[in-house]
Amino acid sequence: MRFSWNQHRFSGGLLALDVANSVILRHDKAQRRDRFADVAAFAGFADGANRYCGERLRFAAPVAVNGSVRSRFLELRESIDLHFRCVVTGEATNASLSRLLADCAALLGDDGATSLETETALSALRLAAEPPLERLRICGHCGWLFLDRSRNRSRMWCDMAVCGNREKARRHYRRIKNREEVLP
Questions:
Q1: What is the pTM (predicted TM-score) of this model?
Q2: Cross-strand pairs, 162
Q3: pLDDT digits (tens, 9 = 90+) for 88-113
Q4: Could you give the C-alpha distances from 23 to 99, 109, 112, 133, 134, in angstroms and in order?
Q5: What's the CA gap between 122 and 109, in Å, rounded?
Q6: What DSSP string describes the chain?
Q7: How far is CA 164 from each of CA 130, 139, 147, 159, 170, rounded to the nearest angstrom?
Q8: Burial class (CB in 10 A: 0-12, 13-18, 19+), 86
Q9: In the Cβ-directed half-sphere of 169, how many Cα atoms lie within 13 Å?
């Protein structure tokens, strides 16, 4: 099966969250997949971000991360995930924020270039500084981080078309199975 950076992959709502979500099934060590393990994925992600990212109007078309900063970019991804996941669960600390700020600072250059790493760092800083943090959520199905932009702030899944449908189908299956077990 060929992987593509489609609209679902950008359901976090912000570039920083979409980058953090590039690890699939992060909470399941056996099935966990890092989409950036393949170097070619960086260019595909940058292209997908230009088309689907919720913040795409805030940045110029970023170019893919180059080899010299890939490891720092991946460190930033992990600090984004750690800090904002802790924010959602109420466990955020000065240490997680400090790590996030240090990783952002390491990638912000003064060359004026529009790069994926620079735009990701700026997105993370905006999220930390302009907190719609009460709208930050963790998907109940896949565990991705996302920004709940629903009117009543009740969204439970990163993407209703994927995770929401899967979760509803799972609940329906359990209900049917429980009914069959009760019947004589």
A1: 0.84
A2: none
A3: 999 988 999 999 999 999 998 655 56
A4: 19, 26, 29, 21, 23
A5: 11
A6: ------GGGGTTSSHHHHHHTTEETTT-TTT-EEGGGSTTHHHHHHHHHHHH-TTGGGS--PBPPPGGGHHHHHHHHHHHHHHHHHHHHT---HHHHHHHHHHHHHH--SS---BHHHHHHHHHHHHHHS--GGGEEE-TTT--EEE---TTS---SS-IIIIIHHHHHHHHHHHHHHHHHH--
A7: 28, 9, 15, 6, 10
A8: middle
A9: 8
Whether the CB-CB separation of 124 and 133 falls below 8 Å is answered with no
pLDDT range class, residue 183, cuts 50, 70, 90: low
Tokens of 144: 């991705």
Q: How many CB atoms lie within 10 A of CB 141?
A: 17
CA 97 to mean position of chain CA atoms: 17
* β-pair partners for 23: 34
